[in-house]
């Protein structure tokens, strides 16, 4: 009989990609959508899915009220929403899994902690993602909740070494299963375009309390853009703030710059990376960004922020990329761009190293066996 794994996660492309690595495995896989609002995912049709459970009643006009009268909607939802703990416990009792695997602390561990504390013998894996543990205080999580969670979980997976050390400092004393990318690896295309055939520079425009894509755009002064004139500047994950800034600077009209606000497929993003000579990402907090891994494996020269020294796990500053030490320092970002674009020898050396090393470490084909082995270890552990 197959062993049962209950995945607990929000509906995220990274979660879906991770779970796909278990297709045709010796495990029976279930998914409890912690948000309760997702619909059935066709790409995981082999997974038993518990979705769309949140509302007691999907009343007529709910979406209209939510968009037009948010305060009224919040009041209604207090009466209309089912209790996450109760719904999760129903699923536990129904399927009786041997293992629960939660993805992200605040999203998928804390809401079920009370239940998991009542099922002490049930094995629990926690996967740390992105800013999850590094930035928890800024995300509104109190330390006692972190300590209580790490005291209860039996197994830990992180996307960087930094977060393993942070968990250790917060009293995690159980089994560490290793460092793995949150998406379970990358499907790199076999043929990589040579640097002298690339005509784009790719920028992650994500701009919010954590993402600092706007600072990258501000570093593209008129004098900087003159050195980038031969390249199309592509800004993905952009927003209205970035568009307003670009439109406010007349000199941008003289250059080839494109902002992609809508979401793009992972295949399209990898294609853009394969056409780009530089990749630039910038944030106040993150783990090892999946987009950084993808860009390096596709041959881009990376310029990336380094919160908590995490990016040093992949980038040797000045050798295979540049580290941004201050995410808000526009001059630093500008200098990194100019130093890299004017040093083709540096770019070529980094190209060979990054493509080789990143693919050895993060290819989905290589990681599939390792990820399956994680769960085998868990089931063997007493």
Automatic annotation (TrEMBL):
Keywords: Transferase. Pfam families: Glycos_transf_1 (PF00534). Residues 244-349 form the Glycosyl transferase family domain. The keyword Cell inner membrane does not apply. It comes from the Bacteria. GO terms for molecular function: glycosyltransferase activity. This is Glycosyltransferase involved in cell wall bisynthesis.
